[in-house]
Amino acid sequence: MSSWRSRFLATVVVASIALTAACTSAVPGEPVAAPGAEEKGKKAKSKIDAGTGPVAGLGELNARREVDPCALFPKDAQDTLGKKVNYIGGKTKIDTCTFGIEVWAGEPPKDPAERAPNLGVVDIALNSGMVYVDEERASTGDRGPMTKESRDDFEVYSSQEPRICTRRALFKDKSMIEVEVTTRNNSTQADPCESAETVLSSALKVMRAGQITRRSVPANSLVNVDACGLVTPDVVTAVTGGTPPRHQGPSIRNCLWTLDPKSTKTDALLVDVVLTSAVNNEMVKSVPPIGGRPAAAVQLPFSAPGMPGTCTIEVSHIPFETQLPGKKEALSVMSITQAGPEAACQKARAGAELLASKMPAM
């Protein structure tokens, strides 16, 4: 997994991804950018006509929490690209919809149930939960810088490697969507950027038609909750030892409290809504319940020289059955501190204990 460079906010993102190990699946043989791959990616064509006209975006921050990312790539669009199969990637997040698609070699068959020549399987992650923080963050992908181009009234950031292609769209209202496509294995012949452009075109078509679907979730779902709004000064002090200001995090559901978001030398609190990590692996351990709810500590099993201690406490909530049976929603409280990993877990738990009472009833 690559670094987000030196900016603290970006470091928090990497820590969050690394610590939720159960939600991460590396691509065998980490791809390295090939000469000319970026230019080839720019020339990829979509199998779907995105239409023309303005794209308003996904709306205000609060409204975006209810957007159903799966509705941006509906079944008819999936059938145009290929045949749906099981997804085996690791992008399991509340605001990310995932698809496995066996890509048609040519035009789709008249009956999608029929077998047809195919180019192998791609795994697709469509994320509607990103937030524009600044240009540096928007133009930096998981594996390095992205190129930027203007299309109609929005911007598109792109990157391509031998088996991975990413398209990240930024709209006028500062909402974003990201499409990441990974070929299933080295024998897959499908162009990941063609698939990425197809999924992006599908999303644009849906948005232009004003047909953005809102998720139907239980009234007590954390999907409906402004988790950042639950955080009171006593929570911030319990984790950071002070009252640093709040900063918008990199997703619609998380916020960061720190004196300096560009520094790794200040203690910080990150609150988020996540899906529960798989317990009993090297990084995720069960801890005593918090507020009568199951809880887990998520922490890297090593510490890098010069880096602060980090620890996340996940407080479990209700099942998240929209797309991932077996997963549960959770309130995530991360502590980043110079006092080391053990202190980080103590601080994170102190914050989680205060916040648990403010969560919706199970």
How would you describe this structure to a colleague?
InterPro entries: DUF3558. The chain is of the alpha+beta class and 362 residues long. It folds into 2 domains: 67-208; 222-356, no CATH class. It is built from 8 helices and 16 strands. A 7-stranded antiparallel beta sheet has the order 1-2-3-9-8-7-6. Strands 10-11-12-16-15-14-13 form a 7-stranded antiparallel beta sheet. The chain has a two-stranded antiparallel ribbon with strand order 4-5. A hairpin with a 6-residue loop joins strand 10 (246-248) and strand 11. The radius of gyration is 20 Å and the shape is globular. It starts with 7 loop residues before the first helix and ends in a 6-residue tail after the last helix. The relative contact order is 0.16. Mean pLDDT is 85; it is low at 1-42.
Give start-end ranges of low-pLDDT stretches.
1-42
Enumerate the strands of the largest sheet in spatial order, edge to edge or round the barrel. 1-2-3-9-8-7-6
Q: State the share of residues found in helices, binned by percent.
A: 10-25%
Number of strands: 16
Q: Could you tell me the strand content as a percent range? A: 25-35%
Counted up, domains total 2
Précis, in short:
This protein is of the alpha+beta class and 362 residues long. 20% of the residues lie in helices and 28% in strands. It folds into two domains: 67-208; 222-356, no CATH class.
Secondary structure elements and pairings:
Elements: H1 8-19, H2 37-42, H3 61-64, H4 75-81, E1 82-85, E2 96-104, E3 118-127, H5 135-138, E4 140-141, E5 144-145, E6 147-151, E7 154-160, E8 164-170, E9 176-183, H6 192-208, H7 233-240, E10 246-248, E11 255-258, E12 268-275, E13 284-290, E14 293-298, E15 309-319, E16 328-337, H8 341-356
Antiparallel strand pairs: 1-2, 2-3, 3-9, 4-5, 6-7, 7-8, 8-9, 10-11, 11-12, 12-16, 13-14, 14-15, 15-16
Helix pairs in contact: 7-8
